[in-house]
Amino acid sequence: MKRKTFVRGLALPLLAAGGLFAAGTGLVHAQAPVELQFYYPVAVGGPIAKTIDGFAAGFMKENPGVKVSPIYAGTYQETIVKALTAHKSGTPPVTSVLLSTDMFTLIDEEAIVPFDDFVKTADDKAWLGGFYKAFMMNSQTGGKTWGIPFQRSTVVMYWNKELFKEAGLDPNKPPATWAELKDAATKLTRKDASGKVTQWGVQIPSSGFPYWLFQTLTTPNDAILANEAGTAVKFDDPKVIEALQYWVDLGKAGIHPPGVVEWGTTPKDFFEKKAAIIYTTTGNLTNIKANAKFDFGVGMIPGNKRKGSPTGGGNFYIFKKSTPAQQDAAFKFVKWITQPERAAQWSMDTGYVAVSPAAYETDTLRKYGRDFPAALVARDQLPVSVAEFSTHDNQRVTKALNDGLQAALTGSKTPAQAMQDAQREADRILRASK
């Protein structure tokens, strides 16, 4: 996902060329290149382009007949629109990294093909079975695999250890429950002489991906927002309303910013000590490591009835309206870029979670984890993680939920009214999917 302090998208056209040797003539007849357009949206901080450029060069070195050229494409939201528009016009990308939550939408539009069609060898099968199960929740449905995890994440909690010390809190003991979070945030909130807050105790962003951050509250309250088939939602579940009430109450207590909190500025607020505790993607870890001029901690999301976070981020998809040769080349590239050593490198360069246990067994990531234990928190949270919210007609259903969340956070509706209204709208939208 997810998610947007520094927004940049890439598209990589892969040009595959082969050659035929004409016996007895000494002439080489070049085959027409196979062009594979690769949309690559990026929406986090970190040196993403440099890493992708390195992967492109590495793939070309191992596959001399293929040329990979990065092209900027936009955010996740812009890229899914571009991809579906191109699909409808008959000229879609061959492969693209799009949100894992776009799976149902892409299936409904008959825009993609399952990866199972390309899995032929024992090595292929071992590769497909090697990803973390938590990431496959948003990658498989109906007994088929539609997306391959790559740019994947969970939400984690970051805290400023220096500010904890100043507030009389143990800098190495972050809040582990809702009650502890509220207590710590109260002690960490500071005001100036005029009574204006200069340092918020806790900040949970609610723009960009409100539904995703809301899952950091519904999951610990033991509520699941949608069924696995993506055909029904439970926004009006009392446990969901209770989770939203907790979020609203943090604001009412004056220890969390009021109203809608910007996703993109939240890491910056952390750097500038305007917020002592923040929730954001693990995909921001490298960004925060590079820019925080103080000792900080990374921890799992505080629990209530249980622990847990939603997974997030992007999957590779292969588009239907492309030639068999293009699809085969795309499958080869996706398999190549998700191998353990490259998944390990990607995790170190970006902060995203390496998508397979095998990646964490590599020497490079083992050493990195020993030297920088914060890099392992998101991985360790996977056993209690749940699928990111996703349904059929996902963008419209998600908008209904996001609108409800923002109505409650701004005070224009009570949490109960906001979720009941969102439920009615989602039921109306999803009627066609049942």
TL;DR of this structure?
The chain has 434 residues and is an alpha+beta fold. The chain is 40% helix and 19% strand. The chain has helices at 48-62, 76-89, 103-108, 122-128, 133-136, 161-166, 178-188, 210-218, 238-252, 266-271, 285-291, 324-337, 340-350, 357-360, 363-371, 377-381, 394-409, 415-430, and strands spanning 7-11, 14-16, 19-22, 27-30, 34-36, 38-43, 66-68, 95-99, 112-113, 140-141, 144-145, 148-160, 190-191, 197-203, 275-281, 296-299, 311-319.
- Name the overall outline: globular
How helical, in percent, are the residues?
40-55%
CATH architectural type of the largest domain: 3-Layer(aba) Sandwich
What profile does the largest beta sheet have?
Answer: 10 strands, mixed
CATH fold annotation of the largest domain: D-Maltodextrin-Binding Protein, domain 2
Multimerization status: single chain
User: Based on helices, strands and strand pairing, what is the structural class?
Assistant: alpha+beta
Number of strands: 17
Strand content: 15-25%
Number of helices: 18
Radius of gyration: 23 Å
> How many domains in all?
2
- CATH C-level class of the largest domain is Alpha Beta
Span of the ends, CA to CA: 27 Å
Low-confidence stretches: 1-29
Query: What's the CATH superfamily of the largest domain, by name?
Result: Periplasmic binding protein-like II
Q: Please state the average pLDDT score.
A: 89
